[in-house]
Amino acid sequence: MRNDRARWRAGVLREARRLVATLEITNISKHFGAIQAVNDVSLSLEAGQVVGLMGDNGAGKSTLVKMIAGNHRPSQGTIRLDGNEIVLHRPIEARQHGIEIVHQDLALCNNLSAAANVFLGRELRRGFGPLRVLDYKAMYRRAGEIFSELRSETRPRDLVRQMSGGQRQAVAIARTMISEAKIVLMDEPTAAISVRQVAEVLHLIRGLRDRGIAVVLISHRMPDVFDVADRVIVMRRGRKVADKPILQTSPEEVTGLITGAIERG
Question: Residue 242 forms beta bridges with which residues?
C-alpha cells in the first residue's frame, strides 16, 4: 500500500510538470553522403518523462541522439526547446541549453577521483585573477551532495578505476547535474554490467525523472525499458515506426516492431 501511494504521488508530480513539451523534434533527417541514417523523424519529450528509444543496430538511434546533443547537424528538420527553435553546432551549445549526454563508454578518467570527473572541464576555483586555484573542498562537497541526491553510495574521493559499473554511471550522471540539465540522453547505460549494478542505474534514472529531468534511454534491454520508461519509441532503418505509452504496448509487440514482423505500432 505504501509503495502504491508513493507511485501515485510521483505520478501526480510528473503530471504537474507536463505543462509544455520540453523538447520537440519535427521532421528531422540526417544523411552521410548516400547513407540515410535518420529519415523524417518527429517526436516530443516532456519534463519528468523517461522515453525508451529502441531499435536494432543501425536503426538510427545513436545518430538521432547525437543530433539532439549537438554532435551532428541535421540535414533537415527543426529542434525546439520550450517552444523556441535552437540550432546546435557543437555539444557545448547543447549543454548551454540544458541538454547533456551520457555516452556508452562514459568518457571518464580512471586515474581521477569521482569529484574530479564530475567537474572535469568545469572545475570550481577560488581566489582572484592569476592567483585563482582549484577549490577541491568545494568540489568534494558539491559532488557529495549530488551523490546524496542520487542516493548513490559513490564517494567524492573514490578513484574511478576502483568503481563498479553502477558507480561509474553515477559519476557520469552526476556530471550532468552540475549544469542543471533539463534533458539527459543515455546511450546503453546498463550494457555489460551486473544485475545488481543494473538495478542501481535504473534507480538513478528514476531519481532524474522525479527531479523533473527528461531522460532519453537508448537500450537493447527490454526489461529495463519497461521498468523505468513512460513511453517507448521504436526506430527501424532510420524511421520511427512506433511511439507508444509503455502501458499500451508489450515486449512482444516492441520486438515485432524492431524486427519488422510488425510494420507499425
Answer: 234
Question: Is residue 142 a part of any domain in this protein?
Answer: no
Q: How many domains does the chain have?
A: 1
The answer to whether residues 116 and 127 touch, using CB atoms and an 8 Å cutoff, is no
Residues of the domain holding 13: 2-107+181-259
Answer whether 0.85 is exceeded by the pTM.
Answer: no
81 part of a folded domain: yes
Q: What is the spatial order of strands in the sheet that 239-245 belongs to?
A: 99-102, 183-187, 214-218, 50-54, 231-236, 239-245
Q: What is the pLDDT of residues 180-227, one digit of tens each?
A: 789 999 998 888 778 888 888 898 899 899 989 999 999 999 999 999
Residue with cell 531519481: 207
Contact 254, 52 (CB under 8 A): no
Task: Read off the C-alpha cell for 242.
Answer: 512506433
232: cell is 517507448
What are φ and ψ of residue 157, in 5° steps?
Answer: -90, -5
Pairing of strands 239-245, 84-86: unpaired
Residues in contact with 50: Cβ distance below 8 Å, sequence separation at least 6, in sequence order = 205, 208, 209, 214, 215, 217, 228, 229, 230, 231
219 within some domain:
yes
CATH code at 55?
3.40.50.300
Confidence of residue 239 (pLDDT cuts 50, 70, 90): very high
**What is d(CA 256, CA 232) in angstroms, rounded to the nearest whole number?**
13
- End-to-end, the C-alpha distance of the chain in Å comes to 34
Could you tell me if residue 170 is inside a domain? Answer: no
